[in-house]
Specification:
Blueprint lengths: L4 H16 L10 H12 L12 H8 L3 H13 L3 E8 L2 E6 L9 H6 L14 H4 L11
Helix pairs in contact: 2-3, 2-4, 3-4
Length: 141
């Protein structure tokens, strides 16, 4: 999967979102472990797209057991930090990073949400610039 500037910008916003948010967690879920789980899962994709690491793989990397890993995957989906893609690699469903407050959680939805195709003088085509807001890639470049 080819990564676009919009994918990268979403991934960076997602990282900031999960690090800055303090949602009410289900019983037995520890925030630090949840964030570590989410970051570990996200790197098993293309900037948070089509993440497919199994609970066993992630549990081994994080030093937790597989069943605990499954609880953290479920919690991340419940919080809206990941959304299922309906694609699978073996028995593992691929997930995409998502930010619950943002309506667009896939590259095709991001493209569909672009209101204007004008490019500012900078030549940047990120969602922020195209929609007349702040550049989303200013820190990334």
């Amino acid at each position: 999967m080819k990564t676009t500037k919009e994918d990268y910008a979403l991934y960076k916003r997602w990282e900031k979102h999960i690090l800055d948010s303090h949602p009410k967690l289900s019983d037995g879920i520890v925030r630090v472990t949840l964030i570590a789980y989410c970051l570990a899962l996200a790197i098993h994709g293309s900037n948070g797209r089509d993440c497919y690491a199994s609970n066993t793989t992630l549990a081994r990397k994080l030093g937790i057991n597989r069943d605990t890993g499954a609880k953290y995957r479920d919690e991340a989906i419940r919080l809206g930090w990941f959304t299922p893609t309906d694609k699978r690699v073996g028995r593992v469903e691929k997930l995409n990073v998502s930010i619950p407050d943002e309506p667009a959680d896939t590259a095709s939805q991001i493209s569909a949400n672009v209101v204007s195709s004008e490019v500012r003088e900078t030549g940047c085509q990120c969602l922020g610039c195209v929609n007349g807001g702040d550049c989303l890639l200013a820190d990334a470049e």
